[in-house]
Amino acid sequence: MKVVLDITRLLRRSSQATPTGIDRVELAYARHLLGSRQYKDQAAFVGRVRASTWYLDAETVAGFIEALARRWKQSEGRITRRELGNVEGFLRLAPGTLSELEPPAPPRSALPDALPPLQRLFSPVNLLPRLLRRRNSHGAVYLNVSHEGLNSIAGVRSMVRGHGLKPMYLVHDLIPLTHPEYVRPGDAEKHETRMRTVLNSAEAVICNSQHTRSQLTAFAGRSDLVMPPSVVSPLGIEDEFDEEEPAMPEIHPFFLTVGTIEPRKNHLVLLHAWRVLVEKLGARAPKLIIVGRRGWENENVIDIIERCRNLSDHVLECNRLPDGQLRRLMKQSRGVLFPSFAEGYGLPLFEAMALRVPVICSDLQAFRDIAGAAPCYLDPIDGLGWARAIEDYAHPDSQARAAQLRQLAQIRMPRWADHFSIVDRIIDVVADSPAIPAPSSPWRPSASFERSKALIAAGERSEAGRSLAFVAARPQSSTR
């Protein structure tokens, strides 16, 4: 058994109607391991429920994963005709322009049910004897890509020690540590524990950007811990972003912003910029569609959206859109806007770029790592700068927008196949490294456990097994 994927998050989130970004990542990993010839009969899955680690039958996991993927895909399409009609009316499109392209949403009773395969997963038939599973899994790579269950280093230590696993983690971001003001109270402390667990136990770490790796390295330094071997592998864009989208008739210029309405996403700067544009241009001002659910501490943003009369004809809040409709609106927009104060990755930005749609975004290192020089970068608090750039991009003869389009034509954004081509090689390296002592012998922590600068030199483990240097990803986007 070569690799064991922790799907605890998917098990916990299986009752939800739609997935989060991290849900999508764990789902992509599960489908990759199940569908790749490289892992045939060598991939296993675990779920940690009530402080116990359960090894799950791979064939039954496959049924659960596909049922969950279908459920989430069909649930995303459950947008009502009224909601699509609101978008059509806002953009002054003929009724049915959007809704006629959307297949009828299935009734809730017809959605794939994830509960039966979930019940089969935990039936006595599929939960093979624990001793057999422990013997088969000894020395396997334990892969956690969701930060799930990392709040307790003692729990991870017990699992690694008892099952002879080699931990490997995907780190998404360190925002709760670098920007605690943008997360809920207590989240910073929880995330610090997660990152300490990663640093204290990892045989290798995957980071989604060079920025994330730099932040994790800095945190390790502040905590007097050693950074494990690590590589950068950008997350992938879905294959649907290569498909052509149906054209819409010529319409009033509009922009999109995509993201949960919360302080970190900085919708406020856009609303103030739009107030300036409406006061200057009146009815000729471009329109803005805000795509995203309402998060927390967003009262000032919601007040402006709901109560500012000057913006009522120019700003529309849309809770969510089916993926196909979102891609179509992106393609027809004058640009997609991302004024965030902080990001760990920013997948919607890269999805827009994959569609060759101009982007105006905050000048964040996380964006520059992948997007390079193509986007229009602005300071997130430069409201007048945002207003000027939006007005320019809204004009049909915008030279700045045309220049970005020329750059986008030469850029290829990472796909999931690119991500996994790097990850698969890392798994090989970690799997071939010296094995952890078997549970039957006196256990000693692996070299990566409880490492500190006082005990282990920073480069001591870099020569263990094969070097990870050859699988390091280029963090920026590539040209064709």
UniProtKB/TrEMBL annotation:
Annotated ranges, domain Glycosyl transferase family: 241-372
Entries under Gene3D superfamilies matching the protein: Glycogen Phosphorylase B (3.40.50.2000)
Record's protein name: Glycosyltransferase involved in cell wall biosynthesis
Record keywords: Transferase
Record's keyword annotation contains Transferase: yes
InterPro entries: Glyco_trans_1
GO molecular function, one term: glycosyltransferase activity
Keyword Ribonucleoprotein applies: no
Recorded superkingdom: Bacteria
